[in-house]
Amino acid sequence: MKAFIFDLNGTMVNDMPYHAAAWKRVANEVLGGNFTDEQIKQNMYGKNAEVLVRLFGSGKFSPEEMDKLSEDKEEQYRREFISELALLPGLAEFLERAHQAGIPMAIGSAAIPSNIDFVLDNLNIRHYFKAIVSAHDVTHSKPDPESFTKPAALLGVKPEDCIVFEDVPKGAEAARNAGMKAVILTTTHPVEDFDALDNILHFAGDFNDDYIKALV
Ligand SMILES: O=P(O)(O)OC[C@H]1O[C@@H](O)[C@H](O)[C@@H](O)[C@@H]1O
């Protein structure tokens, strides 16, 4: 049995520049930091509270403050990205073909539930996924494996039978830590950023890629 687990941001939708812009405003304008675009990009993975701790150190904000900063950041992201909201090229067809072929599919994302709902419901694709694991469903997010082991368990498939679709190195590392191979969408990071990882099956620009199409 084979199963597909999709990361959401940057993998299903090409939205990481919008996350980066929203993080940069919160980190620099709201919180007085002085982070470069590259620093934001390299630290922008995992749960929002984990990003804030990586940038500002632990103990600087209470959980309530981090929740508020997170909501503020996600509101900006949704407001600015909605006019561009679309699946990556070829993904609509790939999801439909995989669904017809009976391949179980899940989402393993570091995003909060409201951001996942924003994508799935605006694009009417929720019915393809038998399991959805968000930031709220795991103790530690990527590169911890739980964002992928949990959806695999909910689908009832073994880790070695799952293929993860990801776009960031820390997500691919989470797949490796879960015992899973990954296909990388190069929306966000160049191929060389994944050099340290030995679980990458393939790099593709989008889902019209021949290797990806042949997975179904
Ligand atoms: O795990 P996913 O779906 O790529 O989501 C990751 C992103 O989710 C966003 O909500 C966070 O604010 C980002 O910092 C994070 O990188």
Automatic annotation (TrEMBL):
* InterPro entries named in the record: B-phosphoglucomutase_hydrolase, Beta-PGM-like, HAD-like_sf, HAD-SF_hydro_IA, HAD_2, HAD_sf, PGP-like_dom2
**GO MF annotation list:** beta-phosphoglucomutase activity; metal ion binding
Cofactor requirement: Mg(2+)
Query: EC number(s) of the enzyme?
Result: 5.4.2.6
Recorded hits in CDD domains, A to Z, give: HAD_BPGM-like
Could you list the residue ranges forming a coiled coil in this record? none
Q: Which UniProt keywords apply?
A: Carbohydrate metabolism, Isomerase, Magnesium, Metal-binding, Phosphoprotein
Which reactions are catalysed by this chain? Answer: beta-D-glucose 1-phosphate = beta-D-glucose 6-phosphate
In this record, what's one Pfam family? HAD_2
Q: What class of enzyme is it?
A: isomerase
Similarity comment text for this entry: Belongs to the HAD-like hydrolase superfamily. CbbY/CbbZ/Gph/YieH family.
NCBIfam families in the record: HAD-SF-IA-v3 (TIGR01509), PGMB-YQAB-SF (TIGR02009)
Query: What is this protein identified as?
Result: Beta-phosphoglucomutase
Per the UniProt record, the source organism is Mucilaginibacter psychrotolerans
